[in-house]
Design goal:
Phosphoribosyl-aminoimidazole Synthetase, Chain A, domain 2; 7-stranded mixed β-sheet; 6-stranded mixed β-sheet; 325 residues; 2 domains; 33% helix; alpha+beta; single chain
Length: 325
C-alpha cells in the first residue's frame, strides 16, 4: 500500500462497516473530514482528537502537540490536556525520548494545557520513533463547530499562509536537495514556519464568532481539506488558485521539487466557512491573524479555478510530502 493516509474510499468503507455501537451522549462522531468526536457532558461538551507524527523525524514533539490541539480548536473550543504515546525502536537513546518530551513540555506551556499521561515503549515493531497524542478540550453545550456544518453560499476562508508545515518539514528533511537552490536567508525563513503552525487562537475566535464549519488543513493540503469539508457537508465549492495565500519561498520549493503546494500538509492554516466572511476576516486581522477569502461553498461539485480553467477537485490521495523524489 502507498505511504500516507488510507485513501478515502477504503477509509469510508472501514468507518461505516465498524460502527456497531452508537451512544446517545456522542454529539459529533467519526466520519470523513471529522477529526474530533464531541460528547455531551451535561452543561458542557467534551471534545476529543488523536493523531500521530509519521512524516518527519524533526520537531516531533512540537508537531505532535500542535496538530492535535489544532483539531480541538477546529471545533471552536480550547484544548486543556494531552496524552502522549511514544513508540521507539531498540536503537533509540534515552536522550532522544527526553528531547521529544522536552519539546512537548515547552509547547504545552505555550498553550496552557496539561500533560495528563500516556505510554512510552521500546519496540522492534517500529524502525523509527512514532509519537501519537490524544488531546481533550471542553466547551459549552451546543457550541462545538463541525466540519460538516458548511452551508451553500458560505464564504471560504483560510488563515495565515498555506503549506507552512510542509515547507518547514521539507527544509529540515530534504536540505541536500535545496542547498543549491535556496540562500541562507531563505533557509532561515523556512525554519521559522514551524513556529506558526498553531491555529488554536483563530479556532477559539471563530468559535465565539459563530462560524458554520471549520477544518484544520493537514495531510492533503487545502484541496484535501476542502474536499473533506464538502464531502462531510454534502456540498461543493468553488475556489481560485490565483488568490491562495502561499509565500514565495513555498512556491519556489514546490516548483523545484515538482510538487503541488495546494496538496501539501498545511498545519498552521484553518479552513473556515461563514456567511459573514468579510466581517470575520476583519476580526481575525484585528487579532493579528492573516485571513483570506478563497471562494464559496456551492451546491454542486468541488471546483478549482486555475489559469481561468475550472478543474474538478478529486478525493485526496497521499500528501505531496510523500511524492518527493
Amino acid at each position: 500500500m502507498n505511504i500516507g493516509k488510507l485513501n478515502w474510499d477504503d477509509l469510508e468503507q472501514i468507518i461505516n462497516r465498524y460502527k456497531s455501537v452508537k451512544r446517545d451522549e456522542v454529539i459529533i462522531r467519526n466520519g470523513i473530514g471529522e477529526d474530533c468526536s464531541v460528547i455531551d457532558f451535561g452543561e458542557e461538551e467534551c471534545v476529543l482528537s488523536t493523531d500521530p507524527i509519521t512524516g518527519t523525524t524533526k520537531n516531533m514533539g512540537k508537531l505532535a502537540v500542535h496538530i492535535n490541539c489544532n483539531d480541538i480548536a477546529s471545533c471552536g473550543v480550547e484544548p486543556l490536556g494531552i496524552m502522549v504515546t511514544i513508540l521507539a525502536p531498540p536503537n533509540v537513546e534515552l536522550d532522544d525520548i527526553s528531547s521529544i518530551m522536552k519539546e512537548i513540555d515547552e509547547e504545552t506551556q505555550k498553550l496552557n494545557i496539561e500533560i495528563l499521561g500516556g505510554h512510552t515503549e521500546i519496540t522492534d515493531a517500529v524502525n523509527r520513533m512514532v509519537v501519537s497524542c490524544t488531546v481533550i478540550g471542553k466547551g459549552k453545550r451546543g457550541k462545538a463547530v463541525a466540519t460538516s456544518g458548511a452551508k451553500d453560499g458560505d464564504d471560504i476562508i483560510v488563515t495565515k499562509d498555506l503549506a507552512l508545515e510542509g515547507t518547514g518539514i521539507i527544509i529540515n528533511e530534504y536540505k541536500e536537495k535545496l542547498q543549491n537552490i535556496l540562500g541562507e536567508e531563505e533557509l532561515l525563513e523556512g525554519r521559522t514556519y514551524i513556529e506558526h503552525i498553531s491555529v488554536v487562537k483563530e479556532g477559539i475566535i471563530c468559535g465565539n464568532f459563530g462560524v458554520n464549519s471549520m477544518h484544520d488543513i493537514t495531510e492533503g493540503g487545502v484541496l484535501g481539506a476542502l474536499w473533506e469539508m464538502a464531502e462531510a457537508s454534502e456540498l461543493g465549492f468553488k475556489v481560485y488558485e490565483s488568490i491562495m495565500p502561499i509565500t514565495n519561498l513555498t512556491k519556489k520549493i514546490c516548483n523545484t521539487l515538482n510538487i503541488d503546494a495546494l496538496r501539501l500538509i498545511s498545519s498552521g492554516s484553518m479552513l473556515i466557512t461563514t456567511n459573514r466572511g468579510k466581517e470575520l476576516v476583519e476580526l481575525l486581522k484585528n487579532n493579528g491573524i492573516k485571513a483570506t477569502i478563497i471562494g464559496k461553498i456551492t451546491d454542486s461539485k468541488g471546483i478549482l479555478v486555475s489559469n481561468h480553467e475550472e478543474v474538478e477537485v478529486m478525493p485526496p490521495k497521499r500528501d505531496e510530502l510523500f511524492n518527493i523524489k
